[in-house]
Amino acid sequence: MRVQVAIIGGGPSGLLLGQLLHKAGINAVVLERKTREYVLTRIRAGVLERGLVDLLDQAGVATRLKKESLTHEGVMISSNDDYLELDFNKHIQQHVTVYGQTELTRDLYDAREAAHAKTLFNVENVTLNDITTDSPSIDCTVDGHTVHIDCDYIAGCDGYHGVSRQHIPQDKRNEFIKEYPFGWLGVMSETTPVHSELIYSMSDRGFALCSMRNPKLTRYYIQCDSKDSVDNWSDDSFWNELRGRIPEEYAAKLETGPSIEMSIAPLRSFVCEPMQWGNLYLCGDAAHIVPPTGAKGLNTAASDVHYLFTALKHRYQENESTLLERYSQTALKRVWKVQRFSWWMTSMLHRFPEQSLFERKLQQAEFDFLKQNDAAQAALATNYVGLPY
Ligand code: FAS
Ligand code: PHB
Fold first, then answer.
1. 206 CA to middle of ligand 2, Å?
2. Has 136 been annotated as catalytic?
3. Which of 167, 117, 116 is nearest to 139 (CA)?
């Protein structure tokens, strides 16, 4: 098989890049390790920045999103029973869109199938060849059969545990990592959201997040030990712990119900530099990971896709490779600003097992300053709704 761009990974990064390339008449194949059904069982992000919504619109896959998504013009940040209702409009006249990553991934798969664009599922044993030459290629097996793909460029969109990053020589790869001593225990339930917008809650018992997918489907998280297991939690114990971590006024009206999904995600900050090597370009979780406290994982995958798609389009339509040569440098400038914001939100809102009383006082002071200072609120709002691409 020969394509212009071979995309490894059929998550949101790979699918969005594939759809944008298809719309621009650039021939790409998506290689996905799992099945479409398996990919769509994953429950991940829920808050979309304006840039991602615009990209989905540009890709022609925003019809259902425009009908079914929620627009949020603010967010609540609380500390025990004290809280701040941060109004995005007051500071920056922008909003965020609430629409599950699972749904936008479904929309992207539907669009890919409708366009008869090629996707290979159950792909294994992926190896990248000659990535520093003008004729890179990929060898893999699909349902036991060997497949060889010749291409101009390879997009590594295969997530944190993917293979593409490993093809950057170890001595040329700088990996920056910070592991957090806690994870997030998440529950999805068919209940009415406790508040009209998200609540990020810092409490003496630990962090909690009240989110949603629609007016009848909620997504809640509580900070848990990094070695915890969902086997240690019943629905009742989750709801009781959540009640103890959000302001009393909201705990009193929390609607509980059976969990339709319960899972634990580890929290880490990670960046791989560079994000390109020869004709291999990394996008999304393949290149960086953020703790989900700032709702930036999926959204930063989107800004990578924007930069890479723009560079590839420029290359094919103008026969000019400057943007491709600068991809990593361009993407990393925004990646590190997002890393900072995600680390800051996580540091302010979580209880760290070994933290001193002094450090806990600093966290409270951070919240108090935020509550009293418009400039601090504007800075949080600017980062949360999404930095410019
Ligand atoms: P993904 O990991 O989504 O997709 C990579 C794809 O590549 C997968 O489908 C995988 O099967 C495939 N793949 C892997 N290896 C392969 C190989 N060798 N060959 C072919 N295919 C291969 N972000 C938020 O903003 N909010 C959240 O609440 C949130 N929760 C998360 C919870 C978990 C458990 C995880 C892991 C991430 C979470 N994220 C969250 C971040 C998440 O949304 C990512 O940012 C987003 O999925 C990034 O998309 P991709 O870069 O496409 O990577
Ligand atoms: C979610 O709804 O899953 C969600 C929302 C905001 C976050 C993290 C996760 O910061």
1. 17
2. no
3. 167
Nearest CA to ligand 2 atom 7: 295
The secondary structure element, H or E, covering residue 309 is helix 297-318
Tally of domains in the chain: 2
Ligand 2 atom closest to the Cα of residue 101 is 3
Residues 259 and 379 in one domain: yes
Where in the sequence is the domain holding 9, given as residue range(s)? 5-70+97-177+268-345
Let me know whether 16 and 120 are in one domain: yes
Same domain, 360 and 335: no
* Per-residue pLDDT tens listing for the chain (389 residues): 999 999 999 999 999 999 999 999 999 999 999 999 999 999 999 999 999 999 999 999 999 999 999 999 999 999 999 999 999 999 999 999 999 999 999 999 999 999 999 999 999 999 999 999 999 999 999 998 999 999 999 999 999 999 999 999 999 999 999 999 999 999 999 999 999 999 999 999 999 999 999 999 999 999 999 999 999 999 999 999 999 999 999 999 999 999 999 999 999 999 999 999 999 999 999 999 999 999 999 999 999 999 999 999 999 999 999 999 999 999 999 999 999 999 999 999 999 999 999 999 999 999 999 999 999 999 999 999 999 99
Contact residues of ligand 1, CB 6 A cut-off: 8-14, 31-34, 39, 44-45, 101, 123, 126, 157-159, 162-163, 265, 284-285, 292, 295-298, 301
Question: Are residues 109 and 173 both part of a single domain?
Answer: yes
Q: Is 150 exposed, middle or buried (0-12, 13-18, 19+ CB in 10 A)?
A: middle
Q: Which two tokens stand for residue 82?
A: 């004290």
Domain annotation covers residue 13: yes
Catalytic residue among 12, 22, 72, 153: 72
- Pair 260, 281: CB distance under 8 Å: no
For a mutational test of ligand 1's pocket, the pick from 298, 300, 305, 346, i.e. the residue with the most ligand atoms closer than 8 A to its C-beta, is 298
The Cα–Cα gap between 378 and 33 comes to 42
Most ligand 2 atoms within 8 A of CB, residue of 69, 198, 299 to mutate: 198
- Whether residue 80 is contained in a domain is answered as no
Residue 158, domain CATH = 3.50.50.60
Shared domain check, 155 and 21: yes
Determine which residue's CA is closest to atom 6 belonging to ligand 2.
Answer: 295
Rounded to two decimals, the pTM is 0.97
